[in-house]
Amino acid sequence: MKKIAYFLSFLIVFIMIFSCLTGCTTTKERKEFVVVCTVFPIYDWMRNVVGENDNVDIVLLLDDGLDLHNFQPTTDDMAVMSDCDVFIYVGGESDDWVDDVLTTVKNTKMTTVNLIEVLGDKAREEEEIEGAEDAHEHEHEHEEEETGYDEHVWLSLKNAEIFVKKLADVMAVKDEKNAEKYQRNAAIYNESLSELDAEYEKAVGEANVKTLVFADRFPFLYLFKDYGLQYFAAFSGCSTETSASPETVAFLAGKLNELNLRYILQIEGQTHDIAISVRDASESKNQTITSLNSLQTITANDVKNGVTYLSVMQSNLETLKTVLKNGG
Question: What pLDDT sits at residue 135?
Answer without folding.
Answer: 63
